[in-house]
Design goal:
By secondary structure, the chain is mainly beta. The chain has two domains: 1-42; 45-313, Lipocalin. The chain contains one helix and 20 strands. The strands form three sheets. It has a ten-stranded antiparallel barrel. The N and C termini lie far apart (76 Å).
Length: 314
């Protein structure tokens, strides 16, 4: 009997300690549950805002050819394949009237809700230039630039687009959003040579066949599909990754495009954010005029570089 009593006395402190631990755990859950609910309630998924930024010195790579009619009339002259940097002397110094030197202005207007997000974005027109004595003869838009002449090159382009994102998952930690949209690429490329005592010879893309035109730009629209993922303590900081692209063969244009972007956004206050990103954008298009296979243009164009933006949302 004494042994049973002693065993009971030994077990009692252990049972008492277990009860205290259970009570403490219950109290902790009761205390943290409202805080967790408050955090969830405090995280906003509905925003209307703008993003204004600069794509800093995007590196350009271009290979292409442009056919056309000699002096605007007569038979078509097949274009000569060229590399912008090697053959035309195009440098990586970018110019834009919409930002300071070496920076390209970009803007986005967005509307976010719990389930759907909409955005409109544009990268302003920007120009790369080159100057070189031609090492070989190049046909460009029906004009023949012979080897040995001094050639000046201007490559101007812009991009823009609209996207709809379906937020299949959207909380304070992670967002997963398949997207569908339409994007446009505008190009206005020009080659010019001058020989002493002769008028300047100029060829450009302003009169080639393309689905749309805007001023001197040939505009190539195309759809895109993709996925965007955002991860972080999204009220204060988030890392995002987006991959989108498409292949098309209509309106006399054939080819594909891809856009990949990795970024990080810091929100020091809920209505103001600072975003740093790196973007890769590539298009490989070929456009032909129906019934005239020798009158066409094709190019493989790539841009890549960092961007810095300010986000204001309400």
């Amino acid at each position: 009997m004494r042994r049973g009593l002693m065993n009971a006395l030994r077990l009692r402190p252990r049972r008492s300690m277990t009860r205290w631990l259970l009570c403490a755990a219950l109290l902790g859950l009761a205390w943290t549950a409202p805080a967790q609910a408050e955090d969830d309630d405090d995280f906003e998924t509905g925003w209307v805002g703008v993003r204004l930024g600069m794509w800093y010195r995007p590196e350009v790579r271009l290979e292409g050819l442009v056919s056309g009619k000699a002096l605007g009339f007569g038979p078509n002259v097949p274009g000569t394949s060229f590399n912008a940097e090697r053959d035309l002397g195009v440098t990586q110094n970018v110019e834009s009237d919409f930002f300071f030197d070496q920076g390209v202005g970009e803007a986005e207007v967005f509307f976010d809700s719990e389930w759907i997000s909409l955005s409109l974005e544009v990268v302003a027109p920007h120009t790369y230039r080159g100057s070189r004595v031609l090492q070989r003869t190049i046909n460009f838009n029906g004009r023949t630039f012979t080897a040995g002449v001094a050639l000046k090159t201007k490559l101007q382009q812009f991009t823009g687009g609209a996207q709809i994102k379906l937020n299949v998952l959207n909380n304070r930690i992670v967002a997963v959003s398949p997207l569908i949209g339409v994007r446009v690429l505008g190009i206005d490329w020009e080659l010019e040579s001058s020989v002493l005592g002769q008028p300047a010879l100029r060829g450009d893309t302003s009169d080639i066949s393309s689905p749309l035109q805007f001023g001197g730009f040939q505009v190539l629209p195309y759809p895109e599909l993709g996925l965007e993922v955002k991860v972080g303590l999204r009220k204060y900081f988030e890392v995002d990754a987006k991959l989108a692209g498409f292949y098309l063969d209509f309106f006399g244009v054939r080819g594909g495009a891809i856009e990949a972007e990795l970024g990080a956004t810091l929100y020091p206050v809920s209505n103001l954010g600072i975003r740093l990103a790196y973007r890769y954008y590539a298009v490989d298009f070929e456009a032909r005029k129906s019934g005239a296979s020798s009158n066409f243009f094709e190019f493989d164009l790539e841009f890549l570089g960092p961007s810095l933006s300010v986000v204001v949302r309400f």
